[in-house]
TrEMBL record:
SUPFAM superfamilies according to UniProt: P-loop containing nucleoside triphosphate hydrolases
Lineage: Eukaryota, Cryptophyceae, Cryptomonadales, Hemiselmidaceae, Hemiselmis
Organism: Hemiselmis andersenii (Cryptophyte alga)
UniProt keyword list: ATP-binding, Microtubule, Motor protein, Nucleotide-binding
A Pfam family it matches: Kinesin
Name the record gives this protein: Kinesin-like protein
Keyword Lipid metabolism listed: no
Family statement drawn from the similarity comment of this UniProt entry: Belongs to the TRAFAC class myosin-kinesin ATPase superfamily. Kinesin family.
InterPro entries named in the record: Kinesin-like_fam (IPR027640), Kinesin_motor_CS (IPR019821), Kinesin_motor_dom (IPR001752), Kinesin_motor_dom_sf (IPR036961), P-loop_NTPase (IPR027417)
Top-level taxonomic group: Eukaryota
An annotated GO BP: microtubule-based movement
Amino acid sequence: MSEHRINIFLRLRPTKGQLCKYEALDENTKIVVEVPRENLAQEVINNQKEKHEFSFNHVFDRDTRQEDIFNKVAGPVMNAALDGFNGTVFAYGQTGSGKTFTLTGGPEKYEDRGIMPRALSMLYSQFKKRTDYTYQVHVSYLEIYNDTGYDLLDPALETQAKSLEDLPKVSLMEDEDGNIHLRNLSAHPASTEEDALNLLFLGETNRATSETPMNLASSRSHCIFTIFITATQVGSDVTRKSKVHLVDLAGSERVYKTRAQGDLLNESKYINLSLHFLEMCIVALQERKGNKKAFVPYRNSMMTSVLRDSLGGNCKTSMIATINPNKDHTDESLSTCRFAQRVACISNAVKVNEEVDPQRVIKRLKKEVADLREELALLRGGDEEETELSEETLKHLRAKVDEFMVDPSPESELSIGPHMGKLRYCIGYLKTIARSGGGGGKG
Ligand code: ADP
Ligand code: MG
């Protein structure tokens, strides 16, 4: 087990209109946002400014390319997954701030493809390089809307089911070890990069067609694309199993209620209830510090149950907070940054998920037994049994020994082949010769 702090990144999306005043400092590990007072409280308008400072592993400014995002945010998580560590990358931010752009990508240009397709491409190109292991991949794609799970890769979507609503709902099950399993969520094998990308695109299509402008599903739902990797070392019984969740969370926007005049505090509430529960988990994790048994309310929502390992468990996790730096969104941007600061306090305990595969052990032992049988048969001299040495053979052996005894050459050899029965017989015969004090005789 080793400690892993959750890495937090900030991405500013390009925007038209007036920017809020911000400055990235210390080689883009810090951002200072300047808020005019009138933004904070509506009653007094003055020129006082308030500065808010936030630290991140990296702050990506508006012009950052998708490739750089992938390399810094997701690349290390994917590399760790190849070595057997679980991983999670989740995007958090208000609707329109670029979560889906960051994870899935833009529809127009190839270079705009996001973390999900890039993660798959990276995996398969690494498989080709890492020839000491063989790899198997499965993927699943879950959408959670209103605390109900839908399988975006359910085969029925292509045949009978018309919409996600017609599908059996995905539900949570907990086994006796406390591990969470998802019923009715399909996992599809993907032996090539093309298979995996096709599954991803199929899920994206089902996600897009299932949403109507009325229910605003994309901003209210969470989407979790999961890649399961099984790696087996060539010539070993040990397999490593890891899973990577790539998570596009629901929009984090809140409803703001300004209190009575003179009160500077804005009371705010998440529109999405499960994000509220996510924040509760984060706060509990932040407070538990060292006390690993402290209660964390994961079970309050399906999303937090599914992401339990990603937060405070056995997982290398990175969060990408997305903000729209437009002046009109400063409140939301600040709350996104504050949320990220809390997440950064969480440390996970990570380990490689290695296990001995019993099927492989059985296969190997069977092969070993077969090899040993073969060797033994060879030592016995073909398929003759020790007890079955015929009188003819014995006579032949005695003649060989006699010949050997009378041969004066020091280089002479008694050659009878790799057969235990024959060897034993010859040694016994030599002993009788030695006792009788002679060389050869019976014939
Ligand atoms: P969210 O998923 O957070 O609601 P989207 O990813 O859908 O937001 O982004 C909203 C719009 O802004 C989309 O049209 C998207 O293509 C665009 N967009 C977001 N981030 C970027 C970016 N970094 N570069 C270019 N376009 C972006
Ligand atoms: Mg989105």
